[in-house]
Amino acid sequence: MRGSIAVWSLQTFGLALAIILFVPASSWAHGFAGKRFFPTTFQVDDPFISDEFSILFNHIKQAGDEPNKLTQIDIDYSKRLLPNFGLEFHEAYLHLRASDGSSANGWDNLGIGAKWQFLTNEPHELILSVGTDFDIGGTGAHRIAESFSTISPAFFFGKGFGDLPESVKFLRPFAITGVIGPSFPTRSGNVSIDPDTGETIVERNPTTLNWAFSLQYSLMYLQSFVKDVGLENPFKRMILVVEFPMETCMNADCKGQTTGTMNPGIIWAGKYVQLGVAAQIPINSRTGSNVGFLGLFHLYLDDLFPKSIGRPVFH
User: What are the distances in angstroms from CA 256 to CA 153, 183, 252, 287, 304?
Assistant: First the structure.
């Protein structure tokens, strides 16, 4: 299965790279605040709501007493009900391989969310949104998914620096996006019986604070709105990104413990499709010690199908 996942991913990226050569560079309406285009990043959720479809490939060796090699494919779909309000659906297929050679694979729990983009300030390239995500416990494979649900309200933001003065114009291509919010399990703990000793084992399900941000430098913005530095395709369509997705435990027994990664990468954005690759670097030993890989394939459904499935249900 792992080999077929890798072959499928390479085929997908091969097709997407071919699209780059034929898709013209022109303007579109997806993820904009004024002149600022905010791309969909790897593990930091968008500050905007749109009609879009994404596939994220993730491979890394996880930390733990018995570390697993994780290969994961995340599938995300979002649909606008109103121009600034929509629903999001996400699912993931996981393959875990333990150090002893054993493995497990299957679908994770289904996630459903809602997001309201309540502010778009074009002169200051600012987007603010709020939303809630609900992972439905027990909807995934028994060996992969949790049996309990989690509820995760969040605040999202995106800010471009295009309003900086002329004296620092080469800083204008910078932008930052981020999200912060708690994640609450619907069950405080899981109870099981040790098969060898017969003792009762209680495993706590932690409440966490999820916080993440991305720092971006848009070569598209530089070339179009700051100075023509002579970049050609594919470089003039690229955005340099560094992500910091973090999770901090809020329970008494692990309060303040944080895990996360730093994800430096490159995004190429066309009219209908977006591609990205990034490294996954653990921030501490609790997270792990091995560098992982992220690969993103993203479709702008609102630009591909503006008169049908790519427009809001109520418009």
Answer: 20, 14, 9, 14, 44
Main-chain dihedrals φ then ψ at residue 39, nearest 5 degrees: -75, 160
Q: Is the pTM of this model over 0.90?
A: no
On whether the CB atoms of residues 110 and 140 are closer than 8 A, the answer is yes
Domains, in order of start, for the chain: 2-304 (2.40.160.40)
Query: Two tokens at 51?
Result: 């009609």
What pLDDT, in 10s, does the model give residues 47-84? 999 999 999 999 998 876 666 789 999 999 999 999 99
Tell the residue number behind the tokens 């427009």, with chain if given. Answer: 311
Give the separation between CA 297 and CA 217, rounded to whole angstroms.
Answer: 20
CA distances from 204 to 136, 137, 220 (A): 18, 16, 47
Which residue, 296, 248, 287, is CA-closest to 60? 287
| Strand partners of residue 126 | 121, 159
